[in-house]
TrEMBL record:
This is MORC2 protein. It comes from Aphelocoma coerulescens (Florida scrub-jay). Residues 508-519, 526-553 have a biased composition (Basic and acidic residues). GO terms for molecular function: zinc ion binding. The keyword Metal-binding applies.
Length: 705
């Protein structure tokens, strides 16, 4: 309804022709966490009423509720403007009630009633009692009066209006949201002017945006998996859809799993807690009954017998309640072990192939849409255009309070993975890829290479698509779904909003008394690939090869942080000093004699005359004796950690123990020098060349001479 004096320039009105609420039920709406629908077996959509509070506060700053039930009329105002201007921290909600016939206040405290009505007149768009009563009169349900009202005055969202010319009971609820949220440019977030029959998200481009994310009419059409209500937007009925009836070659797959336990475990814990409390109360009542019986003893007066009987009856009642709670607990514990079964329905969207993905409902209410799974995540043409539908009960997955996601992300990912596996099986079963994907889409009028382009509007392609998907429409009176037989004349036909069963050309389904026909969906089976022995062996060999490559790469890059790490490495592995956690270097060994130290680096032509064995002994005996024990211990450790290369070096000098002792330091110093210069091009020595060092070979040769 246009109201230029309010922020946003209009009010958003929701009218429901249901049973309405009395004053107590209206009061429970604003109590966070209160619910009358907590049964896990419940198929009702809402649970806590958070949608009215948090949802309305997201759209606007204030909302006012009018509801009628039986002989009462109740008004409720939840206003952030009121709390901000009055500087109030706690939540105060005016909740006056009137008699529906006399319009007299229904209250025991007239002073409180007067304060509540004054707050409503001050902070709501309705400034007098007459204007408030006009809102209650809109719930009267007279079709003629209300039709003229919303056509001329209101931006209206009606849920469940009745058929033309018929009176409904004077019950229902009207919610009005005002002072709407604005964007940075000062315009409201909701666009009610671009399309008079729709409410759209402002400044949302058509290109690249799914229609359900931009248009409220498109979203309301698929909001329920099996719609059983009428929805009107601005006086125009929404043509709701049953997605499973709008798909080409639908197929159902039954899926069972033991993985969905979080929600069931929560219910078991609650049942155990309730059963334990009931058991304690029953024992207490039985104990009181026994104590009273012992205390009365032989007192057989009438009053005593009446008192005893009352206490005993109470104990019996408490025991019965405890037994019922225990049976419920046992049933939920058994249900926890039982696998949960879900029905996946897949089909091809030949009307708009770019709108594909999974539609996931919870208790028939849409939670997630256009979720890509399995082959669709690869971005190719495989499984393109396929839509999946599943209805998940509360016991399997619990949605978040805003109904836009699921609470348990881990189990939700498991559900998507399972749907991906069944989607791949469906793609094999329909055999579209075998016949040719491009050829398949060309048959239905998709002539462009651009995947997002709509199909051809030529009559022959429209007929081809209409032949594969029969028209399914809902009766405006009995709300039953009817499948119409194919007729060439109905290909481009637009059906009226008030379509009824008598308009059905099928003589067996042309009356509301006829039973609704169930959709016949073929049943598919997930076939797991049974790999042959050769394929398994090939996969195992490939996996072993990959692991070996990883191991080799890991060995080549193993950092050395201590002497113990060095001992664990083979000679072929490059030793690199660690850049992290550097430690103090150990003291180096004493310098080698000049004869051995300079031997590898001498040019072959300028080598001095070799020293004799006696000279080598003399040079070794000239070292300080104080360093001999320390050098011997170091050499002993190096000897224990060397490989076969060092062993050949040692055996080459067996003829002289002094030469053997001198050869070991040369080898160990060569290894340590490699550690100190890891960037050297010789970082990885050749194992064959390292077996017999040239220095030791020449030394042993001289001794033998």
């Amino acid at each position: 309804e246009r109201r230029e004096d309010l922020r946003g320039g209009f009010m958003l009105c929701f009218l429901d022709d249901g049973t309405g609420m009395d004053s107590n039920e209206a009061a429970s709406v604003i109590q966070f966490g209160k619910s009358a629908k907590r049964s896990p077996e419940s198929t009702q959509i809402g649970q806590y009423g958070n949608g009215l509070k948090s949802g309305s506060m997201r759209i606007g700053k204030d909302f006012i509720l009018f509801t009628r039930k039986d002989n009462t009329m109740t008004c409720l105002l939840l206003s952030r403007t009121f709390h901000e201007e009055e500087g109030i921290d706690e939540v105060i909600v005016p909740l006056p009630t009137w008699n529906a016939r006399s319009c007299e206040p229904v209250t025991d405290n007239m002073e409180k009633f007067a304060i509540e009505t004054e707050l409503i007149y001050k902070y709501s768009p309705f400034k007098s009692e007459r204007e408030v009563m006009d809102q209650f009169n809109k719930i009267r349900g007279e079709k003629g009066t209300c039709a003229g009202w919303f056509r001329s005055r209101v931006r209206y969202l009606g849920f469940g209006w009745d058929s033309p010319g018929r009176l409904v009971t004077c019950s229902g609820t009207l919610v009005i949201i005002f002072n709407l949220k604005l964007m940075d440019n000062g315009e409201p977030e909701l666009d009610v002017t671009s399309d008079p029959q729709d409410i759209q998200m402002a400044e949302t481009p058509r290109e690249g945006t799914k229609p359900e994310r931009r248009s409220f009419r498109a979203y309301a059409a698929v909001l329920y998996i099996d719609p059983r209500m009428r929805i009107f937007i601005n006086g125009h009925k929404v043509q709701t859809k049953r997605l499973s009836c709008c798909l080409y070659k639908p197929r159902m797959y039954k899926y069972t799993s033991n993985r969905f336990k979080t929600r069931a475990e929560q219910e078991v814990k609650k049942a155990e807690h309730v059963a334990r409390i009931a058991e304690e109360k029953a024992r207490e009542a039985e104990s009181k009954a026994r104590a009273l019986e012992l205390r009365l003893g032989g007192d057989l007066t009438r009053e005593s017998r009446v008192t005893l009987r009352q206490v005993q009856n109470l104990a019996i009642t408490m025991r019965q309640e405890a037994d019922v709670k225990k049976r419920i607990k046992d049933a939920k514990q058994r249900a926890l072990k039982e696998p949960k079964e879900l029905n996946f329905i897949f089909g091809v969207n030949i009307e708009q192939r770019e709108l594909d993905g999974m539609f996931i409902y919870n208790c028939s209410r849409l939670i997630k849409m256009y979720e890509k799974v399995g082959p669709q995540l690869e971005g190719g043409m495989a499984c393109g255009g396929v839509v999946g539908v599943v209805d998940v009960p509360y016991l399997v997955l619990e949605p978040t309070h805003n109904k836009q996601d699921f609470a348990d992300a881990k189990e939700y990912r498991h559900l998507l993975k399972a749907m991906g596996e069944h989607l791949a099986q469906y793609w094999k079963d329909v055999a579209i890829a075998q016949r040719g994907i491009i050829k398949f889409w060309d048959e239905f009028g998709y002539l462009s290479a651009n995947w997002n382009q709509p199909p051809s509007s030529e009559l022959r392609y429209k007929r081809r698509r209409a032949m594969e998907i029969p028209t399914t429409i809902q009766c405006d009176v009995c709300l039953k779904w009817r499948t119409l037989p194919f007729q060439l004349s109905s290909v481009e036909k637009n059906y009226p909003d008030s379509w009824v069963c008598s308009m059905n050309p099928d003589p067996e389904q042309d009356r509301c008394e006829a039973a609704e026909q169930k959709q016949k969906v073929p049943l598919g089976t997930l076939k797991k690939d049974l790999k042959s022995h050769e394929e398994k062996q090939k996969q195992l060999t490939e996996k072993i090869r990959q692991q070996q490559e990883k191991l080799e790469a890991l060995q080549k890059t193993t950092p050395i942080r201590s002497q113990a790490d060095l001992k664990k490495l083979p000679l072929e592995v490059t030793t690199r000093p660690s850049r992290e956690h550097t430690r103090t270097q150990r003291p180096r060994s004493p310098p080698l004699p000049d004869a051995i130290k300079n031997a590898p680096s001498r040019p072959p032509g300028s080598s001095p005359p070799p020293k004799s064995c006696s000279q080598l002994k003399k040079s070794s005996s000239d070292r300080p004796n104080s360093s001999s024990p320390k050098l011997a211990s170091v050499l002993f450790k190096e000897e224990a950690s060397t490989s076969r290369t060092h062993h050949h070096t040692v055996t080459a000098g067996k003829s002289n123990s002094t030469l053997k002792t001198l050869a070991k330091p040369g080898t160990s110093m060569k290894s340590l020098s490699g550690l100190q210069s890891p960037k050297s091009p010789r970082e990885t020595p050749n194992p064959k060349a390292a077996k017999v060092p040239a220095v030791k070979k020449s030394a042993s040769g001289r001794c033998s001479q």
